[in-house]
Amino acid sequence: MALLEVEDLVVQFYTDDGVVRPVDDISYEIHDGETVGLVGESGAGKSVASLALLRLLEDAGEIVSGEIRFRGRNLLELPADELRALRGNEIAMVFQDAGAALNPVYTVGEQIAETIRAHEAVTDGDARDRAIGLLEQVGIPDPGVRYSDYPHELSGGMQQRAVIAMALSCDPSLLVCDEPTTGLDVTIQAGLIELLADLTRESETAVQLVTHDLGVVAELCDRVLVQYAGQIVERAPVEELFYDPGHPYTVGLLASTPRLGDDRERLTTVPGMAPDLVDPPTGCRFHPRCPYAENVCARRDPPLVETEGGSTDDSDPETHVAACLEYTGDLSDGLDYEVVVHDADGDGNEKGDRGGDETERDGDGRRERGRRGESQ
Ligand code: SF4
What we know:
Blueprint: E1 4-15, E2 18-30, E3 35-39, H1 46-53, E4 61-70, E5 73-74, H2 80-89, E6 91-94, H3 98-101, H4 108-119, H5 124-137, H6 143-146, H7 156-168, E7 174-178, H8 186-202, E8 206-211, H9 214-220, E9 223-228, E10 231-237, H10 238-243, H11 248-255, E11 305-306, E12 321-322, E13 339-341, E14 350-352
Parallel strand pairs: 3-8, 3-9, 6-7, 7-8
Antiparallel strand pairs: 1-2, 1-4, 4-5, 9-10, 10-12, 11-12, 13-14
Helix pairs in contact: 4-5, 4-7, 5-7
The chain binds iron/sulfur cluster.
């Protein structure tokens, strides 16, 4: 049994403009110790999907159907007190804005100790010692001294480390990280990515990582889910997603990622805007922005199917699936892009077709890719 199973989840928001479904019939699972990335542009519904896990949606939002099972128990049917016990103990969250997640009138150490006391019967002294140990574990120098610092006395990166320490305080089985490095400068981001990588390597904690940053995904994730306009449009093991993306939206995201040694004057972008979810496009929701769209794309809603073979059985989470009519055989011209794997000098002279047969890694394992004509 998977640690977390999300099945046919639908979340609605009731706005002045109408009903919006930022999460529209998504299913996925996460196993013990696994790190799964949920990626997509802002507004794709990634954060809403994560907040829904712990029923933390704002008043205007409602889970209207589906199931969220954690160790087999449906969280949507748990009584409030059991759900409260599960939050922090079994599933913990790291939010994007660490400054907002910390209470400004308590010291960071006391906030961590309070979290420990709320979930376990420990003495104040033990809670304090554990909090100091956690501050040390997440790389905060002089943890005994910083215990008494207020949030405003810490830098943004240190605040985020303190929030991660708080999330780890009860040794959760699942850590949900919502854009944990966004808004921090790149050197701080790199430190936090290293920290998260160490933590996930050393413990059996599973991670659901919400991000729009594919570099973070490449560093940390075992598998990736790509979300677009409330729906999952591609799911793949991380290497396969980077070497052999199957959905044109994923290809656009990869092509728009800046790279070391990039000599393009302008970054490629996914054309157009994310759709208004009050009135999403018919058929494939990506069709107004897709360079390969055909008439059928506006009429037919593509199911998630295996990219090799077109099977609709996606029960194995390792199977690479994408929601594009290419894989149901409904496109006349097909998809026409190729993956470019740059060598160690960034020359971009190793190429593979979409099937990935010719794709090779460079000497140090780094690779970059993009759509034909846009990645050089
Ligand atoms: S179904 Fe059509 S519009 Fe959608 S991603 Fe595939 S080619 Fe593009």
